[in-house]
Design goal:
With about 180 residues, this protein is an alpha+beta fold. It is built from 6 helices and 9 strands; from the N terminus they run ββαβααβαβαββββα.
Length: about 180
Amino acid sequence: MAIKTGERLPDATIREFVEVEGNGCTLGPNAFQVADLVKGKRIVVFGVPGAFTPTCSAKHLPGYLERHEALSARGVDEIWCLAVNDAFVMGAWGREQKTAGKVRMMSDGSAELTKKLGLELDLTAGGLGVRSQRYSMLVDDGVVRAINVEAPGKFEVSDAATMLGQLDGAGPKRG
C-alpha cells in the first residue's frame, strides 16, 4: 500500500553523488539516512522511473529546475529527484541536466525507500527491473503533506506546476 498524506516518511538509506568534497561528505557516492535529511526541512520529492529516460529528462526534471526559485520562495528547503538508479548514474544525469544547487539527485539503487513507500513499479518484463512509479510529494519535517502519484504511462499530476499550485493552496492541477 502506498504512503498517504499525514504519514511519516519511512527511514531508509539513499545515496547522492557528491561533486565537491566538504561538509563531512567525500567526493563520490555518499550514504544518507532519510530521517536525518528531512528533519526540520520542507522538501519536495519527485520520483521517476529512471535517469536519462525520455519523459524524465525532457519534462519532469526540467520542470523542477525551471521552478526551483518559485518553490524556494514558497518555503521549500530542498528538491529531490529520486530514482532506482545507482549514485553514479544519478550524478551523471545531474551533471548533464545542470542540477547543482537546485535539485538533489538521490539514488535509491536497491529500491529500499521506494518499496517502503509502496511506490515500486515492476518493469522486469521489459528488462528494466524494479523501478519507481512517477510521483511527487511534499514532505514537511518528515511528514507527507501532499502526494501525487501518476497513473501508468502518464505525466499529469507530479509536475512542478502542480506542486506549486498545492503550495499556493490551489490543489492539484486537472486535465
